[in-house]
Amino acid sequence: MPELPEVETIKRTLEKKLTGLTIVDVDINTPKIIRAPAPEEFTRSVKGCKITRLRRRGKYLLIYLSRDKVMIIHLRMTGRLVYAEPADPLPRHTHIIFQLSNGCELRFADMRRFGRVSLAQVQDLNQLKVIKELGPEPLEQDFTTSYLRKTLKRKRVRIKSLLLDQTFIAGLGNIYADEALHRARLHPERVACSLTPREIAKLHSSIVEVLQEGIANRGTSMRDYVDGNGRAGDYQSLLRVYSREGERCLQCGTPVARVKVGGRSSYYCPACQKP
User: Fold this and answer.
1) Domain span holding position 239
2) Annotation marks residue 59 as catalytic
3) What is the pLDDT of residues 73-87, one digit of tens each?
4) Predicted TM-score (pTM) of this structure
5) Tell me, what's the pLDDT at 32?
6) How many CB atoms lie within 10 A of CB 256?
7) Is 213 tagged catalytic?
8) CB contact set of 251 (below 8 Å; sequence gap of 6+)
9) Is the Cβ–Cβ distance between 106 and 79 less than 8 Å?
């Protein structure tokens, strides 16, 4: 699933192409991708709207339109949102095509069909359940060491599971949680409230570092992810533990191990990240 760095990269690549363009028409091949309103009303509502800006909130891409509307897009596991020329080959599993005023297209493709697109009034955005319940953005000012310390002391859950909780921190997923825990030298099964102030400070800086590096390297492409131009990311070549089971830790040389935490695979170094 695209995480914060991937969605931020998609946002940055698309905003240069889309801002100022008008949606001329919409072709919906798979109606269930449109969560709200009904597909026919969705098409009527966005036709003729100008794209004014793009924003990211957690793993959601927000496309702001004229008439005080905003599209909320979640790519889920295999979704792709790519700007293309009409003559470019149409990928399989393309479910929505936005026809743009410059003659180009914005294409939403999703092999597993888990992705969702919805439309709302801007004034209602922060009251939508999926947005309202999101935790702080880890690259913004309200994500502080104090916030972590205050929140962790009340949590008797394993730290890896907590990092994946979008109400705790918005945008972290399996890849960057594992990478941050490795940098902070924390075992994924550590109980959150057991972390010391020094460990919490290190975890905070590690989360920020891996996310910034992920963005700088245009995200991680393990299988499906591409940016808004259809290009794969580069961060997979810099991963220290994620999906490297049996390979040597880049820090100490110990083989990377894998454990299930909350039903999710977690990669870690047994020597650097002791329980």
Assistant:
1) 145-268
2) yes
3) 999 999 999 999 999
4) 0.96
5) 96
6) 22
7) no
8) 182, 240, 269, 272
9) no
